[in-house]
Amino acid sequence: MKKIILIAFCSILLFGCANKSNVRYDALSQSLKQGGFTGAIQTIEKEKEDLYGEKSAFLYHFDLGVLFHYNRDFKKSIEHLSKAEQVYDDLYAKSVTNEAAALLTNDNTRPYRARPFELLFLYQVQILNYLAINDLDGANVEVKRAQMAMEALYQKDSEKVNDNGFLQYLTALVYEMNGEIDNAAISYYKAAKAYKEYGQKLPVELVDFMSYTLQKTGREEDLKLLKMNNIPETPLSQSLEEKGAEIIVIGYAGHSPILGEMRMSGTFVNGGGLNLTYTDAQTGEIKSFTMIAPIIAESGTATAHIAFSLPEKQVLPFDVYDFSIYLNDEPEIFSENVTDLNDEITRNLKDDWSGTVAKTAARVALRTFAAQKTKKAVETNNPLLNLATSIGTDVASSQLEKADLRVGLFMPNRIHMTRIPVGPGQHDLDIAALDSRGATVSRFTFKQVSIKKGQKLFLFIPAIK
């Protein structure tokens, strides 16, 4: 019986130690560097099981969907992002089995459900995919799904997740293309409201088109609700009305952060206090904090020394910060930042901080108490064997808790959008990806781009490396 207990405990430990997140980025970043988007796609498809596995099915389709989008294979992108959506929907209801496994091991044993910023980015890209192939019906469907997703996130935790400014901006564009001017006005207002709620700068172009649409629909009072008492001028909107068409440039600037491990250690007093120490990744300073320890049933007032890892943001080097656009022989146009994935990742980790700490600490403490009981259960008359068993159990237990570092690997650091009113006909565009000093890193040229009256033509500039 003692052997059975020990074998079962060690099996749980070995099962929990698997963590594909540690190798996935290294493998795929190398493929991206050597073979571009196509190379990264081929590596993912070839090494699906080794790099992702069934527990990260969402990320497998999500990463492929994003890469196919950058590679301008919009139909393939739609296919994989739709599968990622389905995985998310299927996992919406909790699995008791998966939760129980995570309680004993770590969060990597659970199927990955997607973080809020990943889900919202998925809908942004999916809407743009449909617009790129002129499938307005498909874009309409994704708009509805996006609105339902934002509402569900808000209902789940209204203190953490609200509207997404860029997603509402894209929604307004889709309504414009449908001729639904009233719905477009509402979405423009929601977009501006979301930017302000998150303390983000309102894109100048958004203010222009929002103000024009709100005035056109008799909703000037909404501007006052946004504390914009002086009605902004609307030169872009008026130019679009005069010229009749527009080219919309979407630029993906830099590589978003990934997740690294932050080690924490301290003392857990069941039903009492939890004191933890860690090293601040930004400053290198050793910091500590104390919070109320969760209660673990049937453990009395037991005390345990615990150590575990939590996910923390790991900023990656990148070159591109901005874009400049030359249309025909007209003056240079600079792009606008419309969403910042770096900020969204920071906010998500901050929102989840206390809950993740409490849950993880309780799990590690529970396992520590269980390990102590296991050592007693397999105790023999041989002191050396008992010592070896004790040390082995402690080492295995300490190695068990691994932070869940799973995250989408190919999101941009920031998304830029530029709306350029043009007349029907053919146009030449020269777009420069710029570094932090304004120097050109790479160029993208589009010759004799044809556009019809009333059309919104989307061009994509993926500069994430």
What composes the largest sheet?
A: 4 strands, mixed
Walk across the major sheet and give the strand order.
8-9-1-12
* Alpha-carbon Rg, integer: 26 Å
Count of DSSP E strands? 12
Order of helices and strands: HHHHHHHHHHHHHEEEEEEEEHHEEEE
The secondary-structure class comes to alpha+beta
How does the overall form come out from the CA principal axes?
A: globular
Number of helices: 15
- Low-confidence regions: 1-18, 385-397
**Helix coverage percent of residues?**
40-55%
- β-strand amount: 15-25%
How far is the first residue's CA from the last residue's CA? 56 Å
Describe this entry's structure for a reader.
The protein is of the alpha+beta class and 465 residues long. It is globular, with a radius of gyration of 26 Å. The termini are far apart.
A few lines on this structure:
With 465 residues, the chain is an alpha+beta fold.
